[in-house]
Automatic annotation (TrEMBL):
It holds the Pfam family Carb_kinase. Signal peptide: none annotated. Catalyzes the epimerization of the S- and R-forms of NAD(P)HX, a damaged form of NAD(P)H that is a result of enzymatic or heat-dependent hydration. This is a prerequisite for the S-specific NAD(P)H-hydrate dehydratase to allow the repair of both epimers of NAD(P)HX. InterPro entries: Carbohydrate_kinase_pred_CS, CARKD, Nnr, Ribokinase-like, YjeF_N_dom, YjeF_N_dom_sf. The gene is nnrE. Homotetramer. It comes from Georgenia halotolerans. This is Bifunctional NAD(P)H-hydrate repair enzyme. Its EC number is 4.2.1.136, 5.1.99.6. Residues 487-506 are annotated as: Disordered.
């Protein structure tokens, strides 16, 4: 699991080590230089002869860049440092000069002239972004904001873009909330010090961080304390997977009720059932209109289409909340699920039928537009764009207002409960942005929740942190769904290339392979 800690916690953890004289900046800079070296080699270049430009701000982030530049210069790189303020880190600057880094004080009347920085930048194959790190907030300010904006625009126009390496974070992101309040130079790699920061995992900032490398500085982060943001890996998913044993039967493996599909959207029923069945569970009970039931049976004859006891529910994919009969049926199912105290996934149409208060064993699965509508119905008027600009904050707000777990779908999906760490999963290839993919995800999540349904009350009674458990399972469902999409898009294997188009059905069909690979 990748854990991200807030900038306050990281700075607090660094303090006793710095007081004890541990040379954290030297360690950080050495690791940074090593990562740049490795990245150059991966790209088929050698360090001697490579031209590196350090973009240096006035704090310790610039200090890291200068010290790393000194290492790279000693390894034979031609290193230039563009000082974007008049207060560059003194020891870093001295070390850089001693090692042959060419230092350019590019300020004119206190302002770095963009053309001059661009001139240096165009000669370099690697740009090291050491403008600001955890010490800055609220987006880059004038005048460095203009420099960074021009560099980002200039780079995008190059036939062969330089490699951008961000020091600690891409300068200008919202380090703790993942927002992008102003210009940011998108990085190919971010070398982050001590621990990942929330903005490196949360969208939209995370999408500007590139490959993430965490430098272990042995920081005394609170033992057992909760990080701000987590990201599950396939290995974490394997650990929590409900692997069947020889003593299992269909009821112990979980029975999932699926109320999905309508005359208008019968396909959603097929896809959400496929998501559940192909993830693996004891049984699916399907409730829907006759036409959709026929379609479901044609694909999944094992599905039972009569009501009965279930251990979890998926309610809402393809359900038209404006169809009074169907809305009433969905509402009854929601009430039944909540009264029985079993986990329930509330998707699509069901999001318009929510009761006032929900438990955190209910998982809402909106996309940004649906979340904006949901928040609007709770007195928080926001647009879809506002949700997309700060997904973590809005997902958390919706969780606080409803009491439920919120899984906000996107290129990076965020899971937020009313309390506890957030999860941010970036497992989906862009090919997954296709109709019906969300229906499959609802089914996957239902299949993962069903085996826990009967034990939920028991877990609550024993003081287990159910919120944390449900959040983890929701994040796990996103991992499995994303992995299946990788398979369906042909993105597995040593040299996968650009991938290929997929349908939601292809994703469902790839689920057994994805699960098998995760558990292998
Ligand atoms: N505490 C330490 O000794 C360690 C710190 N490390 C590095 O130090 C960084 C933190 O250093 P600092 O606390 O000095 O802060 P930063 O270097 O992150 O930022 C402070 C600098 O940015 C400027 N600034 C602040 N807000 C700005 C804005 N909105 N727009 C433009 N400029 C702005 C300030 O004037 C100052 O020059 C970390 O991100 C990491 O890179 C690492 O070396 C590890 C050890
Ligand atoms: K930076």
């Amino acid at each position: 699991m990748i854990r991200a800690w807030s900038s306050t916690e990281v700075v607090a953890a660094e303090r006793p080590m710095l007081d004890a004289g541990v040379p954290l900046m030297e360690q950080a800079a050495f690791a940074l230089a090593s990562h740049v070296t490795r990245a150059l080699r991966r790209a088929g270049h050698r360090v001697p002869g490579s031209v590196v430009l350090l973009l240096v701000g006035g704090g310790n982030n610039g200090g890291d860049a200068l010290h790393a530049g000194a290492h790279l210069a000693r390894r034979g790189a031609q290193v230039h440092a563009a000082l974007l303020t008049d207060r560059a880190h003194p020891e870093g600057l001295a070390a850089a000069r001693r090692s042959g880094v060419r230092v350019h004080q590019v300020l004119e009347d206190g302002v770095p002239p963009t053309e001059r920085v661009l001139g240096l930048a165009r000669r370099a194959g690697v740009w090291v972004d050491g403008v600001t790190g955890v010490g800055a907030g609220g987006g880059l300010r004038h005048p460095v904001a203009e420099v960074v904006r021009s560099l980002a625009a200039d780079r995008a126009g190059w036939p062969q873009e330089p490699m951008v390496v961000a020091v600690d974070v891409p300068s200008g992101i919202g380090v703790d909330d993942g927002t992008v309040p102003g210009p940011v130079l998108p990085a190919d790699m971010t070398v982050t010090m001590g621990a990942a920061k929330p903005g490196l995992l949360l969208p939209p900032a995370a999408e500007l961080a590139g490959r993430l490398e965490v430098v272990d500085l042995a920081l005394p982060l609170p033992a057992g304390g909760a990080p701000a943001v987590c990201r599950l890996t396939s290995a974490d998913v394997a650990d929590l997977w409900p692997r069947p044993t020889s003593s299992d039967h269909k009821y112990t493996r979980g029975v999932l009720g699926v109320l999905a599909g309508s005359t208008t959207f019968p396909g959603a029923a097929v896809l959400s059932v496929a998501g559940a069945v192909r993830t693996g569970l004891g049984m699916v009970r399907y409730l829907g209109p006759p036409g959709a039931t026929t379609l479901v049976h044609a694909r999944h004859p094992e599905v039972v289409a009569v009501p009965g006891r279930v251990q979890a529910w998926v309610i809402g994919p393809g359900v038209d909340a404006d169809d009074p009969g169907r809305a009433e049926q969905a509402q009854d199912a929601i009430e039944e699920a909540l009264a029985a105290g079993v986990p329930v996934v509330l998707d699509a149409g069901a999001l318009q039928l929510l009761p006032e208060d929900l438990p955190d064993s209910a998982v809402l699965t909106p996309h940004a537009g649906e979340l904006a509508t949901l928040l609007g119905s709770r007195g928080e008027a926001v647009t879809r764009d506002e949700v997309e600009a700060a997904p973590a904050r809005h997902a958390r707000l919706a969780a606080e207002l409803t009491g439920a777990m919120v899984l906000l779908k996107g290129a990076t999906t965020v899971v937020a409960g009313p309390t506890g760490p957030l999860y941010a999963q970036a497992d989906a290839p862009p090919w997954l942005a296709a109709a019906g993919a969300g229906d499959v995800l609802a089914g996957v999540l239902g299949a993962l929740l069903a085996p826990y349904g009967d034990r939920l009350q028991e877990l609550l009674d024993s003081g287990e942190d159910v919120t944390a458990g449900v959040a983890r399972l929701a994040a796990a469902a996103v991992v499995v769904h994303g992995e299946a999409a990788q398979h369906a898009a042909g993105l597995h294997g040593p040299d996968p290339g650009p991938g290929r188009p997929l349908s939601a059905g292809d994703v469902a069909d790839a689920l057994p392979t994805a699960v098998g690979q995760i558990l292998a």
